[in-house]
Design brief:
Length: about 375
Amino acid sequence: MKIAYDIRCLISKQSGIGNYLKELLYSINQFTKEIEFIFFSSSLKESINPELFKSFKDYSLTQLKIPVKILDYLWNKYQWPYIETLTRKNPDISHSPTPVPLPSKSKKIITIHDLCFLDSPEFVMPQIQQYYSRYFKRYVDSADAYIFNSNFTKKRFFKYFPHAEKKKNKVIYLNSPIDKSQEIKPKDFNLKDDFILHIGTIEPRKNISNLLDAMEIVRKKCDTKLILAGSLGWETEEVKERIALMNKEKKIFYFGYLKDQEINYLYKKAKAVIFPSHYEGFGLPIMEAAREQKIVLASRLPVFEELYKDYPIYFDKNNPNDIAEKIINLDQNTELFKEKALQSKIISEKFSSHKVASQHLDFYKELS
């Protein structure tokens, strides 16, 4: 079976969707030899290192120098050029890791990660909000099938697009990383293990402002520190100033964007992982924390309750006092670490790479 993948999200610094796609491809490649991978990417200035696919035997990689904006314009306006023309391959299925389908004569799958731009537009960058408001329904109608990363996302999707329920769809959870054995100590890192870790882009949706408020309360009662690791996103000026001040005062430590190996190091060293988001489609850091048998403090979101049940310690995301209380309590309940370590093993098994690869392969076969 020939599957074409849009891998443009692997070009630059990878975040949620890039990590999802990379782990999915590695899982499928490890699980089966039935797939011929057709990889497509395009960028005027950047390219993907072919070393990324050195473990793949049956694949082709097409990288063109067409600027992303121009290609997106052609695809949105004319649904052209076809992926068959660009790659000189004839896939049975074209799978996009985003809601933007690949123009193709084959069956087209798109992955829907969240409906934030409809559910909570205040947490979406205005340009992206405008873009999806204009094109998203067209993408929905153009696709032949949908993959959702949670039942929560599926339910929200069909609330807004009930006419699409007749098309094939499947909920497939994301998978835990296959190999996280490599570790590199981040530059200038000199903390002991008494810190909590937040992984993610600094943007309004991540609720960093309330987390910083909580840490102001925490520092008066215990020595637990906070590490923030993630690029600066949009609407971050005020938060950036607070981070800089608190970083200078050694209240928190901001590392910016880190490589996978550096994040692995922090996960292993952290006392706990915190995730105070206002809105999420899945919450990869919670799954990654479970892999390291770490305690997780998280917002009480419906999608987290679906995916992770009672593994996280939940707090009111709008209440810095409640967030602070949950952080402070970590030092007062040593049995909690043993209890959550046992729960984390169940979570890790639930999102095994073998299971996720098998589900994708079955869905591909249904469509081909």
